[in-house]
């Protein structure tokens, strides 16, 4: 489920869904770990999906572990256009 800002709707859907609940949570683009932690630790979701943060941060797993920093996503580089895109975003070096 993609959350659009109504957490009440998310909770209603979670309660009604008998299987594994995967949530694409509403989040601040510069702080996706907060949304991930809330969804998983709060029992709101069994798994989370993060689309835009992955498009802007090919190394998102490293950034989640180190709590950022996060690149700002650029919709012009999504799925087409010219040769600029996913692999052109700067990465971080793990400590």
Keywords:
two-stranded parallel sheet, 2 strands, 4 helices, 4% strand, mainly alpha, 95 residues
In short:
The protein is mainly α and 95 residues long.
How many domains, as an integer?
A: 1
Widest beta sheet: strand line-up: 1-2
Q: Segments where pLDDT lies below 50 for 5+ residues?
A: none
Gyration radius, in Å: 15 Å
> Span from first to last CA?
34 Å
Largest sheet: 2 strands, parallel
Give, in order, the helices and strands. Answer: HEHEHH
Arithmetic mean of pLDDT: 83
* Separate helix tally: 4
- The secondary-structure class comes to mainly alpha
Beta-strand proportion: under 5%
Helix content: 25-40%
Shape: globular
- Total beta strands: 2
What does this structure look like?
The structure is a single chain. By secondary structure, the protein is mostly helical. It has one domain. Helix content is 34%, strand content 4%. It has four helices and two strands, in the order H-E-H-E-H-H. A two-stranded parallel ribbon has the order 1-2. Strand 1, helix 2 and strand 2 form a beta-alpha-beta unit. The longest helix has 10 residues. The model has no long low-confidence stretch (mean pLDDT 83).
Helix and strand arrangement:
Layout: H1 7-16, E1 22-23, H2 32-41, E2 47-48, H3 52-56, H4 60-66
Parallel strand pairs: 1-2
């Amino acid at each position: 489920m993609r959350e659009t800002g109504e957490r009440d709707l998310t909770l209603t859907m979670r309660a009604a869904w008998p299987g594994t609940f995967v949530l694409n949570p509403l989040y601040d683009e510069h702080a996706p770990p907060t949304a991930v932690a809330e969804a998983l630790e709060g029992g709101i979701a069994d798994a989370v999906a993060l689309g835009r943060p992955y498009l802007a941060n090919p190394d998102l797993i490293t950034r989640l572990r180190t709590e950022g920093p996060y690149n700002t996503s650029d919709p012009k580089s999504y799925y087409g256009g010219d040769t600029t895109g996913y692999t052109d975003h700067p990465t971080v070096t793990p400590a």
